[in-house]
Amino acid sequence: MAQVPVQTIHRDPQLFYWILIPITLVMILTGVLRHYATVLMASAPKKFDLPTIREQRSLMRGINLRANANAVSPSSFQVRKDYLVNAFENGAFLKEPDKKGQGAPNPMTDPAAMEGMMGMMKGNMAMIVPQTLIMGWINAFFSGFVIIKLPFPLTIKFKSMLQAGVATRDMDPQWMSSISWYVLCIFGLQSVFNYLLGSDNAASQMAQQMGSMGPGAGAQMFGPGVDPDKQFQGEAENISVLAHHYTLEGVENRLLESVRV
Amino acid sequence: MEGSPTKEGPTSVASAKSSVPSSSLSFRNMHRVFTASRTALKSFSSYADLIRSSPPPSSSFYAMTSSLLHPPAHLPPTVALQLSQQAPILLQSTPSSISPYSLSSLWSAAESPELWMTYENLMLSCLRTGDEESAHLCLERLTARFGAENERLMALRGLFQEAISDDDAALKQVLEEYEAILKKDSSNIPVTKRRIALLKSLKKTPEAITALNQFLDSSPTDAEAWAELADLYASQGMYQQSIFGLEEVLLITPYAWNIHARLGEILYMAAISGEAGAEKYLAESLRRFCRSIELCDDYLRGYYGLKLTTGRLLTGVPQASRQAKSDSVLAAPDSKTVERLNETATAKLTEIVRLSTRGDAAWGGYDKAELIAAKALLDTDTVKTTR
Questions:
Q1: What's in the GO CC field (chain A) (predicted)?
Q2: Average pLDDT, chain B
């Protein structure tokens, strides 16, 4: 079988200086800029007023009691159980006791919830706007250039990935177009940003995407659109059906068995 | 510093167990384990308390470098002194201001939480040793970074002012400042805690208890506050309430062996104070100590309490009255078990005292005062048996 002749394309070396380096540089600078923009735009962590703190922590207290009830004696547990179940069912810890039983407020009309959404929006905007601008800029100035040849062979499937914007059917997939270099930069500069800005920077999209996928458990628990009364009712039920096993029962025998002098 | 007899409660346990820690001490031990609540714990130990209740100097158990990242409250005085002597050098070597937005942060090392923790701990150490200038410098740098409106910094500034005030009048002024802050923003938790600590060091215990109860109503998951409340109640001889508070702590941190032991101590104090149901208290106290040893091998306080409770069960109470048990409470174990427990505790205490006074490397880290108290207990025991 005849050897496939190696494709050679004569490129102007200026391509390297005027396309490859500018794109890389601009990408890095945008990342740094985005980091600082996010830091500046970040709204301070939301401060809760006292009734809200009381509501949340009282619920936590119920959860703690349920999880760790075995540490206290049966009588102590009974006292706490009676008190908490009663208080939870009556809504004694609610932030707005008169709104009990009305269901969760609509998150769209709740100003506090809107604020949280605005924060999310800001984060997304800081990512989308520069992304769009730079994509447009590269399209306008550098589309259609083949800039480098990768030093390793690739299969034909990579053509669409590496040669975006260059519609040449027979060109070897090793050749890479400027737009593909841009896309590669988006995903490949993570470690550069880590080096420049520290590991918890806001420049990488990866972290942002992860963040938007799985919001923290705390946000789900006390987030907008959750009816605290429902949570209290559920917790009251959990506590009232709890079986109590006292840890101190037989501890002296356990100790005598385990301790060797 | 004046002695604080009120702290230990009026019972004879306190005098027998010279090593019974004041509340803040046991608190701090817990703290060593549960660093998560770091911020909270510090806020309660006022300057005066720091000096009054700091443990005696121990060996070079604490390495110099790491101690600045630890909460300073449980540092022995010698180490605190060492730290604060290094303060001027340390303050010079670190950059005077770090802004999160400056361009230079691109190539200089990134600021780390450790740096600010170091500043905070350095400030507390300096206040302990009276180096107010360095403390003020630390405070200023923290303020430059986080702003004067930061809640934690408001509390730190209050602490600084408490430390430099010489008399009660000045302290009262600080108290008024706290109240002014709280009137504006009642959800400022660090300042709320400082106010309670200040009330406590001004010896206004009833007010402190009221304030703590108010605070715990809105923040019932604060283990530190519950423990502090339990301690204040114990100092007033209100053991029932104190026990309740410690049980709440256990519901939040069920594996804190020092809290188990502390609860055992309070139960024992309740038992010998002649309250109704001494039987029940003593049995539970014994089991609490057992549990604390189960959670932490060779726990000196646990064995000490175990020996004390078993000794009392063996000698003091006639067998007959022990039979009258209520249905919901575990009765005391039978006398044979109690005897075996007593023997175990005695043997273990002897071993711990022997090995750690000999200076065995693996047996360091025990509190000297606690060792002395354990030794004294063992000595009284031998005197009794020889007679």
A1: EMC complex
A2: 75
Question: Which ipTM did the prediction report?
Answer: 0.72
Instruction: Give the H or E element holding residue B225.
Output: helix B223-235
**DSSP codes, A199-233:** TT-S--HHHHHHHHHS--HHHHHH-TT--HHHHHH
Res B14 pLDDT > 70: no
Calpha distance B257→B249 (Å, rounded) = 11
Q: Find chain B residues with C-beta within 8 A of A62's C-beta.
A: none
Measured between beta carbons, which residues in chain A are less than 8 angstroms from residue B218? 50-51, 53-54, 57
Asked if the Cβ–Cβ distance from B286 to A57 is below 8 Å, we say no
Using CB atoms within 10 A of its CB, is residue B115 exposed (0-12), middle (13-18) or buried (19+)? middle
- B333: which DSSP letter? P
Interface residue A230 vs chain B (CB under 8 A): no
Q: Do A50 and B186 touch (CB under 8 A)?
A: yes
**Max Cα–Cα distance, chain B, nearest Å:** 80
User: What's the confidence (pLDDT) of residue B53?
Assistant: 36
Please check whether residue A222 touches B, CB under 8 A: no
CB contact, 8 Å: A256 with chain B?
Answer: yes
Q: State yes or no: pLDDT of B88 exceeds 50.
A: yes
Q: Is the pLDDT of residue A230 over 60?
A: yes
Task: Chain A: give the shortest CA distance to residue B78, in Å.
Answer: 35
| Tally of CB atoms within 10 A around A191 | 9
Q: What is the pLDDT of residue A2?
A: 61
Which candidate from A39, A246, A254 shows the least CB-CB separation from B294? Answer: A254
What was the pLDDT predicted at B274?
Answer: 75
The DSSP line for B76-141 is -HHHHHHHHHHHHHHHHHS-S---TT-GGGGTSPPP-HHHHHHHHHHHHHHHHHT-HHHHHHHHHH
Confidence band for B264, pLDDT divided at 50, 70 and 90: very high
Q: Which residue of B has its CA nearest to A75?
A: B328
- Reported as a pLDDT band with limits 50, 70 and 90, residue B149 is confident
Nearest in space to B51 (alpha carbons), one of B91, B93, B80, B31: B80
